[in-house]
TrEMBL record:
This is DUF3459 domain-containing protein. It comes from Pseudotabrizicola sediminis. Residues 83-522 form the Glycosyl hydrolase family 13 catalytic domain.
Amino acid sequence: MAPASADDEIFALRLDRSASDLWPMLEALYGRHPAFDAFRANLLKALKKAWAARPADLKRLDLKRDLEPDWFQRSDMAGYVFYIDRFAGTLRGVLDKLDYLSDLGITYVHFMPCLKPRPGDSDGGYSVMDYRQINPAYGTMADFEAVSAALRARGMSLCIDLVLNHTAKEHPWAKKAAKGDARYQDYYLMFDSPEMPERYSETLVEVFPEHAPGNFTHYPAFDRWVWTTFNEHQWDLNWANPQVFLEIVEIMLHLANRGVDVLRLDAVAFMWKRLGTRCQSEPEVHMLLQALRACSRIAAPAVIHLEEAIVSPSEMLPYLGRGQHDGKEGNLAYHNSLMVQFWSALATRDTGLMGHVLATHFPETLRNATYATYIRCHDDIGWAITDEDARAVGMSGPAHRAFLSDFYEGGFPGSFAQGTLFQVNEATGDKRISGSFAALAGLDRAQAAGDAAGVALAVQRILMGHALIASFGGIPLIYMGDELALPNDHGYLDVPEHAHDSRWIHRPRMDWQAVARRNEEDTPAAQVFWGTRHILARRRAVAALHAGNGTRVVFPDSRGVFAFQRLAPTGVVLCLFNFTEDWQHVPEDWCRAQGISQMHDALSDHPVETHQGAVALPPYARVWLV
């Protein structure tokens, strides 16, 4: 690498580049704090220290990605998400499975929470007691660095979780706070009496009303009421304290220097509290996130930020930058609405609501950012469908949300699904759903009934979902096992730490026997694997699917078909998806009016023959017309 003087110059140039994104945000947040000048000096020192400590190969990667800022938007990006222990046992075990990921076509790997959690119930690893250590069940930080280097050598980017809203109550900061250290008590949101917690609670919502009701916990041992949004063992951080910002920046850059490419910033919507509100997505949250991104761009510019905010479309888009934060905040955010609307349209066989929501609330293009698209993840499905959107297409919001829960639990007449409820809120009627992709798509029920036709339809539903997220725009994320149609895992009920949390039903252990048999047997697992592998290969081959190209929802006459254009400079790609178990027909003239000059399917890489002037779509068909 360049001599130290050149390194210093590079740092100065990057600091100058991002100064206007960083300092105004921090002055607005903390400028009146009595220690602001010292905080600013200490932050600058921390940025310089992290840059000086950054390994040479990562500094080369910084330069490469500065020169290719769209690296994460390209059509060769495809993600795979897993719990380390459930995929490969340990970090070292992951090294033995990289050939499998390469074979599937993966270029982005997300390790589910892998930092050291509290013992016992840790909210799936999101209750972290040490951000600088790896969960000892998975290995050591040296193991982590070996895996990150191996991924980098294969052209794979590594994503890990960094929880920003809270720490475990066993974190050293929390332990000091519990012992009465005033400095560390100011790291958290603590109150001397129940008066303020009661006032805040008037407008707060409960995240886990069944097993963690309320938002505050009283600790008699030190006589404080602590803000605990998620669980009693997760103490909310006080982001109004600039020292918290500094501590998190140092942690963030420490992880970046261990080889992390993508920081999934968890629970960001809850970071700032304001009396009389839900304390979600307050304006200061976006100021904080812009400043955090600026810190990465200064000291580790190869790193991008994925902001986890599972909220309504109007709330979600600001996490990708809006107004003063346009192009300056998150690089990635989950497209929760695409996932919700997929399941909604699949149940109703009607894409009207899906088209309305995705056309009305989402822009065709984003600046310096894109979506993480997915059909299933480690979490439950909450039916984030507003009453206003439901009314716009002639539905009742409460009735439709209740229908979806009933349908995917499997109790609605004619349902093909087999899920389970999560966090039923009797007060609001909210019912969320757990279940694997395969189970919710109908495979578990069809196999149990010996229904060969039902099995075949379930396989097609799964592949349609994978083709949707591969083409809509962004980075498609495949949750571990969904490429093999793994079923629900009811064994979670036998594990004391998991039995209370139905989300573990869709967090099975990887079935490596099914992987071994994928070349030998014509099973649903093999069919889904090869179908998914083909989808990702075709995605790589179609440069027009670059996330920087616009996505425009269009409306064919058939309500059973969802359609959108990918607006590439080289021409339109028209993507069609049949959400029904019946044949659907889309007029050829309509397709050509959307900009299609050749009737060629880029997904199958074959010509499309029209029948009586229409494109005929079999049940759950997916077509990428060019």
